[in-house]
Amino acid sequence: MNWSVIRLLYAHELTMLLRARRTVIMAVILPAVMMPLMLYAEKYSNDRRERTLQAATYPYTITGPLTGQIQKAISDARVSLATEQDDDLRQLSQVNFVEMHSVANPRQSLDDNRIQFYIETFSGDEADKLASRSQAPQRNSAASPAERRLKGVPLVNVVYREDRDSSDNAHNRIMSLLRIARRQESRLLLTGHGFPAGAKDVFAVQSSSIATSGQVTGSIVGRFITLFLVMMMFTGGAVAAMDIIAGEKERGTLETLLTTAAGRADIAAAKQLAITSVALVITLIQGLNFVLYIKLKLIPLPNDFDLQLPTGMALTLLVLFIPLAATIASVLLMISAYAKSYKESQMYFFPIYLVGMIPALASVMPGISLRSAIAFVPVANVSVAAREILMGRPDPLMIAVTFGVMVFAAGYLVRSAARLLAREDIISPAHTEPAEFLGGPALFQRRVLRWFALMWVVTFAVATNVPALQSLRGQLLFNELVVMIGACLLMMLMYRLDPREVLSLKPVKPAVWVAVFFAIPAGYITALGVFKVVNVFIPAPQQLLERFSEDLIPKGMPSWELVLYTAVLPAICEELAFRGILLSGLRRKLRPASLIVGIGLIFGIFHVTLYRIAPTAVLGMVLTAIALMTGSVFPGMLLHAGNNAIGVLGGSWFAIEALRWPQFAAATAIFSLSLWIIYRNRTPMPTR
Amino acid sequence: MSAPVVVQNLSKIFFDEGRGQIRAVDAINFECGEAEVFGLLGANGAGKTTTLRMLSTILVPSSGTATLMGHDVVKNPEGVRKNLGFYSATTALYPRLTARETIDFFARINQYPAERVKERVDYLIERFGLGKYADARVEKLSSGMKQKVSIARTIAHNPSILIFDEPTVGLDVLNALDVQESISELRNEGKTIIFSTHIMSEAERLCDRIAIIHGGHILASGTLAGLRESTDQHYLEDIFVQYVKAAQVAV
Fold this sequence. Notes:
The complex is a heterodimer.
Chain A lengths: L2 H17 L1 H35 L1 E7 L3 H15 L5 H7 L2 E4 L6 H6 L5 E6 L1 H9 L22 E6 L4 H28 L20 H39 L1 H6 L5 H32 L15 H28 L3 H19 L19 H11 L5 H27 L1 H4 L6 H5 L1 H26 L6 H23 L4 H4 L7 H28 L4 H11 L6 H28 L5 H15 L3 H21 L3 H20 L7 H20 L8
Parallel strand pairs in A: 1-2, 1-3
Antiparallel strand pairs in A: 3-4
Helix pairs in contact in A: 1-10, 2-10, 3-4, 3-7, 8-10, 8-11, 8-12, 8-13, 10-11, 10-14, 11-12, 11-13, 11-14, 17-18, 17-22, 18-22, 20-25, 20-26, 22-25, 23-24, 24-25
Chain B lengths: L4 E12 L3 E13 L3 E6 L6 H8 L7 E6 L2 E2 L4 H6 L1 E5 L10 H11 L7 H11 L15 H12 L6 E5 L7 H16 L3 E6 L2 H7 L2 E6 L2 E6 L1 H8 L4 H15 L1
Helix pairs in contact in B: 3-4, 3-5, 5-6, 8-9
């Protein structure tokens, strides 16, 4: 990295953006000015409407045998509400209802706008007769839901016009008043017969939360702050990103820049920094806007809203939000670098924006803590961390992990964008990449990850949506035979691959078999020991342990079937897929260490349940290392099958709980020795 | 000591959906010395631009090597670009920068010594007669002025090697003459210049040596006098046609 070049390019990019007057006006100034204007206009019109409706006079009439009773009930209710402390109730008593007497045809008067509604009353007998003749007063679907009327109970029906604002408003208010009047009548009747006046007189109910209002507010804000920021950063950063590479391609200035002495990585880094800055500035402007709206009471907050943000908490959030902005900027940079034109980059933006919001929703899901595998999922980790920080329960170790993961993700994406800038088909759209043209094994190497992404989507979609395949048997048969083996066969067919070579079906030295045989129990016990050690620093929730064994060991299945479905079948199919096809596709593109980590992680992600990702990823890494050392899938198959078999049946063979540190140490020594023997007898496959 | 530009067996293969595998440049060889204008003369699609884009490290050669001031285009592309000024019809200017800012930016990005940048910018503004327009945005300039700014930004860092890929395409006669004049002056200053064109008169007027390129192959190269002698033709156009027809007959 040449920092002086990055500095120069960064300043250049910002100058270019600031001088794009239209962009600045459309993306920054207009939203900043329009939003408060819009909110103010909305508030003004609402207030005015309320005042107008409150000051208006609502003529009405009452018909039927209960006219006198309803007149009195309304009048009593209004008198009692006049002394209420609640503003809404007091206002209800002040509404200008004016009763019109001797209205000959209330329906006609309502239609002619001479009255806003009328109340028709029916005695119990009349109402029963109407009900029996199915002549209940006409109602439309939008009116308030009909109450269930007991036989003999009188009926009061408010007739109004929902399509007229004043009539609809008058109806809402008279309905509230009638319900209050009915409650008062009911209370009078009950007390008249010696019963408690109302539910409140039977026993009082109340609740007490021990959380402070600051914590409650923190919890609410924490759930949505990352989602809000991701949305702001995506939309804010997009303004710069679209122009920064795709726009340059269109104008022809990218080629000018690429012929200068600046390195591609420096160009990508400077552009990424510029997008990050713009995203942060626009987010800050929008954030300040919101604070201003709240201060101006354009956005009302609940009375108990109390967001406490001490300096330390604010700084911690900032430490997480800066790499979040950098990661989003890197994604936008990738879109812009990949697109051939400004228009094309706009087309890619929206779906990626939607996908980007999914991990930000992690904080909304109940029960997710940062001290879990979520800490390793970019964006989702920031979302959960922000919630915990705002609730006053920050976890310093996991916040550090989150920061590291985000910095790594941002760095990786910038590097990928720099690589895109070196691709000829990206710089000169007329050129096709040789692999795309030649097809066969060359294209397979470029497409293998897409295949595995598709396989994961199918596995996940079926596991969550097809009830018939949700049993262990059904799921394993579908995943292993249809998805894994089916996809492997399709890839071999489409890309004309030699099965023996691509599946690494190669014999190994006898010493390797012996080593693997000992590595199976030793590796399993070592893994338990590692888990115990890790548990000291990052205690796994009890729920995790229970779910893990529930997922793995279904009740009531015979041992032989359990071993067949959970050990033998996955060992064969998954080894052929991951250490066969996937490893063959990637091994000439990545270094061995990256292969081990990458394939291990992909293997982990395929074990859909969140609780199983980390342990299976570690197993995947060991199996990939063995496949690289031996150049064969067979030792991995044996180790995989043995490991799974102990996993499901181990408890009945030996007392896992009884294992102590000496046993763990011995197992670790045997496992290390086994790996050393495999290494000494290696017949490695060619890698990068 | 080797020449500033050495090209050996340089090839570029493209893959096109419609046309399949295309050998845009096929094992070409040439060298270009100091204070020399080396012309690549060929029709559209002959392989001129692809060759020059490989030399400027925009494209990676499929095979063969090319070194500029001793830097390999594949192994040390940044070293190559530091010593190179690349000008083509497709290398546009930043419309929202002024002429002065443009020259300043390209001098700095190409790592011209920071303390001498201002002096260099002033010199180039003076040299190309841009004084009156130096602080106007490029988007506001006439096409002739833009052309001058383009050449100024190409030589902003005073590179030893200059590549001009069809620099007069789309220019009127007077602007084209200005560009040719600038190239002549740069040759006189000792620059190594590779110049591509399909306009015969330009090649005749400017180039010290000419390579006739067709179908990705260099059919002939030498001084204009040498080419005249070997073909027994006087006009470059006739020389060019003779070589191309002979190549077509051979195919």
